[in-house]
Amino acid sequence: MKNIIKIDISTYFIILLYLISGCFKEVILLYLIIIIHELGHMFFIKKFKKEIIEIKIYPFGGITKYNSLVNHNIKQELLISLAGIFSQLLLIIIYSLLFKFNIINNYTYYLFNKLNNSLLIFNILPIIGLDGEKIIHLLLELFIPYTKVNNICIVISIITLIIFIINSISLKINILFVLSFLIYKIIYFIINKKYIENKFYLERYLYDIPYKRVIYIKDNNINKMYQEKFHFFKYINEKKILESKYGNK
After folding, report:
1. What does pTM read for this prediction?
2. Given phi > 0 = left and psi -120 to 50 = alpha, else beta, which region is 129?
3. pLDDT tens-digit readout, 25-80
């Protein structure tokens, strides 16, 4: 775990503001929830034998980066994405029991629910960079070609972000951090979209990607390729089609 967990500099700034304001309990509860959320992701990442690159803690949450092919196992990725949410739901049960047996007081229980619910709702927003978008992306991959899913999720992210901005008009520093992060993630994804999609095709050419179904496509449009499916284009298998694009010339 050495050097895996990193704290963004903006997080130190927010913690300092909390401490100056005397909000010691808020800081402890907030980052306890964030860490438990990320540990949920980490559990399934380790279970599926993937390498964790970094766990970065931001003022409003965390991001766990790990090595994974663009051509992934949808079920495994769904479990990894849902794990953080499951962890927070488990925390609700634990804190409810602590409150029931008078181990924590009313204020601590109220504060926990307020912070946990806020982070939970935030994380399930379908905006690029959050668990909610990743979950929707993975579910759409079951039925829609990969490149089309990317386009759909960009549109959903932008619309949701606009709604989020309208409902969160505030000059509070934490809101500004959140908006900056979300806008950056959407722009970064749009800029790198072609690179990611090329990687999706290149992996299918270079590796023997596991698949669950074989489908036939009437033309040679590789943009119609799905996750977890092997494709035949006019009865020519995808390896041959991709060889013309990525093979040695």
Report:
1. 0.91
2. left
3. 889 999 999 999 999 999 999 999 999 999 999 888 889 999 999 999 999 999 99
Q: Where are the domains of the chain?
A: 5-191
Question: What is the Cα–Cα distance from 161 to 157, expressed in whole angstroms?
Answer: 6
Nearby residues of 215 by Cβ (< 8 Å), 6 or more positions away: 226, 229, 230, 231, 232
Kindly write down the DSSP assignment for every residue of 158-211, as one continuous string. Answer: HHHHHHHHHHT----HHHHHHHHHHHHHHHHHHHHHHHHHHHHHHHHHHS----
Closest to 162 (Cα-Cα) out of 182, 144, 176, 141 = 182
CA dihedral 85, 117, 17, 8 (to 10 degrees): 10
132, 112 Cβ separation under 8 angstroms: no
Q: Helices 131-141 and 146-167: crossing angle, nearest 10°?
A: 150
As beta bridge partners, residue 34 has: none
